[in-house]
Amino acid sequence: MKEIDARGLACPAPVLQAKSAIEAEQLNAVSVVVDNEAAQQNVGRFLESRGFEIALEKDNRGYHVIGKCDAAAQSKGETAPAADANITKIMVMIATDRIGYGDDELGLKLMVNFIRTLSEMGPELWRLVFVNNGVKLAVRDSEVIADLKELEDNGLQILVCGTCLNHFDLLEHKQVGETTNMLDIVTAMQLCDKVINV
């Protein structure tokens, strides 16, 4: 089993190292060592997307993601499901916990109203991504947690930046969405038809 030591690397470098090694060496077993839980989650999700079964461990060296699969499962994992070509895929990226400048209290109210109105976009709302200060909307005590959980329960994929959660020391407080990395976000931008930045 190949071990990849990705400790000390910023997002999305651990995922990119795992991706490069798997593709270059046709690996069916890999162990990736990282130094934080967000990176562990990101690497784990990546390996699962490639058909690997994963196990997560932690020891004095760091967080370990151990992935194993057979060649057939790996090929199957790389196949993306077909999308409905008639539906425009819109990604909404939220980089703040309030809308506009001037009055912070008003800005927070506007953001709450915006989140609560997102369902009006219907099936065109394809991804909801939180980065920077926007991740604060996806953590405990956020006024919109119930609304975000309802969107997620209805099939919306919500991505929450792991580097941002770590920066604000909020990783343990995340209540909704998948902890993600910049590779996932950039890939989502490539796959969608339109990006709305808030």
What coarse outline follows from CA principal-axis ratios?
Answer: globular
By DSSP (H or I, 4+ residues per run), the number of helices equals 7
Q: Give unreliable regions as ranges.
A: 78-83
Strand order of the largest sheet: 8-7-6-5-9
**What is the terminal-to-terminal distance?**
43 Å
CATH architecture of the largest domain: 3-Layer(aba) Sandwich
Class inferred from helices and paired strands: alpha/beta
Order of helices and strands: EHEHEEHEHEHEHEHE
What is the domain tally? 2
Rg result: 18 Å
Which CATH class of the largest domain is shown? Answer: Alpha Beta
Tell me the CATH topology of the largest domain. Hypothetical Protein Ychn, Chain: A
Biggest sheet statistics? 5 strands, parallel
Query: Percent helix among the residues?
Result: 25-40%
CATH superfamily of the largest domain: DsrEFH-like
The proportion of strand residues reads 15-25%
For the secondary structure, the number of strands is 9
Q: How would you state the average pLDDT, rounded?
A: 88
Tell me what the structure shows.
A five-stranded parallel sheet has the order 8-7-6-5-9. A four-stranded mixed sheet has the order 1-2-4-3, with helices on one face. Residues 78-83 have low confidence and may be disordered. The longest helix has 14 residues, at 104-117. It has helices spanning 13-25, 37-49, 71-77, 104-117, 145-153, 162-167, 182-191; strands at residues 2-5, 29-34, 53-59, 62-68, 90-94, 125-130, 157-161, 178-180, 194-197. With 198 residues, the chain is an alpha/beta fold. The chain has two domains: 2-77, TusA-like domain (Translation Initiation Factor IF3, 2-Layer Sandwich), CATH 3.30.110.40; 90-197, Hypothetical Protein Ychn, Chain: A (3-Layer(aba) Sandwich), CATH 3.40.1260. The chain starts with a strand and ends with a strand.
